[in-house]
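Retry 2 of 3 after timeout on previous attempt. Resubmitting C-alpha cells to design endpoint.
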C-alpha cells in the first residue's frame, strides 16, 4: 500500500472540519477524493503534505510506505515533499512565485533534493518543461508566470510537482479554471505521466464527470466525513449517499448542457 489515511481528524479554532476520514491509495492506483465545496477535500490533502494553515491541528494516522508521517517535524516532512510526494494546487497563478522565472521554479525541487547545479540544472528545467508538453520549453523557462496562459501555468505546476519523480501525486482540483479543451489536455497529461511512471494519484475534485476520466476508485466526503466509497463505475450507476446522487445530477446536467465539466469555459 502506498498511502494509508486512518481516522484523520482536523480541527480549526475549536471547530472540527474533518472527522475520521479513512481511505487508501495503492501503489500505482488512482483514487478520487470528491465532495462539494467545504467538504474537507483540500484540508485532507494539506494534512497529508504537512501544510495545514496556522491554527489547524490534525490527529489520526497518515502512513506513507508504512511510515507514519502525520506529526513529522517540518524538516522531515519537507524531505518527502517533491521527492516522494508531489502536489498540484488548484490555482497555479497563486501557487507560483510571480518574481521568479518558471524555469527556476520547475528546477527548485531538483536543486534541493538532487543537488543539481549550474547548466545541468537549467537543462533539467527545460527537459521537465518538455515532458509536460510545453511548446518551446527553452523559451518557456525564461518567462514569468504572468506571461503564460492558464493552461501553461498548470503544466508548469505539474512539472514542478513531478520533477523529482515522486511516487505519489496529489492533484487538487487541477482543471477548475480551465476551458474545455485545455482541461482535456491536462487530464490526458496527468493520465499519461502517472501511467508512464507507475505513479499513484490522489485526484481531488467536486465534479463526478471529471473524476470518471481519471480515477478507478473514489471516496465521497460530506461535511468532513466519508459518506460513501467504492469503484467509480459503481458510484456512477448506483450512488447510495444523497450527496453522491446530487453530484451525479450536477455532472449529468453539465454534460447535457455541453458545458466544461470541472472548469469554466
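Retry 2 succeeded. Sequence:
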Amino acid at each position: 500500500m502506498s498511502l494509508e489515511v486512518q481516522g484523520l481528524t482536523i480541527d480549526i479554532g475549536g471547530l472540527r472540519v474533518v472527522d475520521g476520514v479513512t481511505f487508501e491509495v495503492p501503489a500505482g492506483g488512482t483514487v478520487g477524493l470528491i465532495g462539494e465545496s467545504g467538504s474537507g477535500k483540500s484540508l485532507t490533502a494539506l494534512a497529508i503534505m504537512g501544510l495545514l494553515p496556522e491554527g489547524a491541528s490534525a490527529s489520526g494516522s497518515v502512513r506513507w510506505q508504512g511510515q507514519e508521517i502525520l506529526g513529522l517535524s517540518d524538516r522531515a516532512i519537507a524531505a518527502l515533499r517533491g521527492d516522494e510526494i508531489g502536489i498540484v494546487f488548484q490555482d497555479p497563478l497563486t501557487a507560483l512565485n510571480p518574481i521568479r522565472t518558471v524555469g527556476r521554479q520547475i528546477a527548485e525541487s531538483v536543486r534541493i533534493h538532487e543537488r543539481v547545479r549550474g547548466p545541468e540544472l537549467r537543462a533539467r528545467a527545460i527537459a521537465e518543461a518538455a515532458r509536460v508538453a510545453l511548446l518551446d520549453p527553452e523559451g518557456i523557462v525564461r518567462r514569468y508566470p504572468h506571461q503564460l496562459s492558464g493552461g501553461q501555468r498548470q503544466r508548469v505546476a505539474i512539472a514542478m510537482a513531478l520533477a523529482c519523480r515522486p511516487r505519489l501525486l496529489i492533484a487538487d482540483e487541477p482543471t477548475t479554471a480551465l476551458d474545455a479543451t485545455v482541461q482535456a489536455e491536462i487530464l490526458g497529461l496527468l493520465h499519461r505521466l502517472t501511467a508512464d511512471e507507475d505513479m499513484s494519484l490522489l485526484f481531488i475534485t467536486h465534479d463526478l464527470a471529471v473524476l470518471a476520466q481519471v480515477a478507478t476508485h473514489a471516496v465521497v466526503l460530506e461535511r468532513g466525513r466519508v459518506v460513501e466509497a467504492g469503484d467509480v463505475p459503481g458510484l456512477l450507476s448506483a450512488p447510495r449517499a444523497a450527496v453522491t446522487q446530487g453530484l451525479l445530477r450536477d455532472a449529468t446536467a453539465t454534460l447535457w448542457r455541453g458545458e466544461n465539466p470541472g472548469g469554466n469555459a
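Attempt log closed. The chain has two domains: 1-84+168-265, 94-165.
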